[in-house]
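Q: Focus on the chain.
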Amino acid sequence: MFIAKPQTPKNPAYDIDPKSLILSPKIREECGVFGVFGAANAAALTALGLHALQHRGQEACGIASFDGKKFHNERHLGLVGDSFTGDDPGERLPGHAAIGHNRYSTAGKTLLRNTQPLFSDLATGGFAIAHNGHLTNAYHLRENLVKDGAIFQSTSDTEVVLHLVARSRRIKFIDKFIDALRQIDGGFSFVGLTNKKLIGARDRLGIRPLVIGKKDGAYLLASETCALDMIDAEFFREVEPGEVVVITKSGIEFIRAFPKTPQRPCIFEFVYFARPDSIVGGQSVYEVRKRMGQRLARETPADIDLVIPVPDSGVPAALGFAQESGIPFELGIIRNHYVGRTFIQPTQQIRDIGVRLKHSANRNLIKGKRVLLVDDSIVRGTTSRKIVRMIRDAGAKEVHFRSASPPIKHPDFYGIDMPSTEKLLAANHDLDTMTQLLGADSLGFLSVEGMYWAMGAERRDETYPQFSDHCFTGDYPTSLIDYERKNQGKDPQMSFLVEVA
């Protein structure tokens, strides 16, 4: 039996878009996942884990639990703190096992029906699933499933996996799940919950992260180690690329779903996406970002008075730049942490000053100074341009800008919000033009080799790169079936594919 408690949104903008019944950009999402098995307060622990993973998705969240007899699933639009406070989540979502999800849709409207975990009653019993990443053949699979009679309730690529599991002719559930995994491609990490098992799975190249933890005899799964730290859990190990983890009351089992191959974890986790206090691939994200800043100072020096980070993600790299160059590090931009992701901007005048809702210049510090701004990356350049202008308006004598990662010239297709090539600043302009567009006195980027140096690699091996660096190099580690079919004109309605990733 299944008990669902979705929160119905009051805003009509969240109603179902008829066009999305085909497929829309909403399946492209950055997300965080968390799972617990063997804890009396599983849902409460999951809510805390999702709090730690809030940076991975701020538009929607959900928790599914199993109490030994029933599945419970509660999904909301908005932040974890706004959805799972007040009553103890463990009282509303009882059980010894639970999974949770934070969602960030990269384009289009936010829909409650796309919020995870998704749940289905299968022939083998109830199954809840949550997903971080993106499947690069989701549309192709969905198209075939619909032709074969499948009825979809969402536009999420995660639902494709539910249908593949349901239609598998294997006998055991875990074999059905692995059968489904072998039909999908892309970058993903899954957490799933049945009436007997907590399941974790990671794509064959390890593009998206997933770790295992332990707390008081319970096992946990999470996108990042910072979620384990939140609940004072012990880090056990990472889920290996191509591995399926099955956790039951008997213990933990590891199954290799794909043959071993050189792994390609996404390097953008280190550049921006992961929280700085997380450990990814055995490396401190914070220390890697500091080294990126140190190398950036060597590669793109400037005659300046102050090094100022663009908060918050630019802070470690700016600190590394300042330490390497010997130039003072100062908080010249103050961030307002009480402004959400979105803001209604009805007029041009409001749009022009919109950046000041989140960032304010420290005028007394900046006035008359030659400052260098350090950010983790430059995507469209829109925010960077506004920040440069804000610093000039605060009285800076010169404003220089540095990116602690290489120029982003290619879109992402594995679950990170990255626009089409046409909207990427570095894909369409040379360095001089970009400098002029940003309004900066100079502009510099970390080299690809410098990025690999910061990761502890001597150089980028062109034959077997250690990371998936496709946003910078265009070297995609998997097939891009949906994108290629769209570009070949076979599926012209798939306009969402050029909007993202």
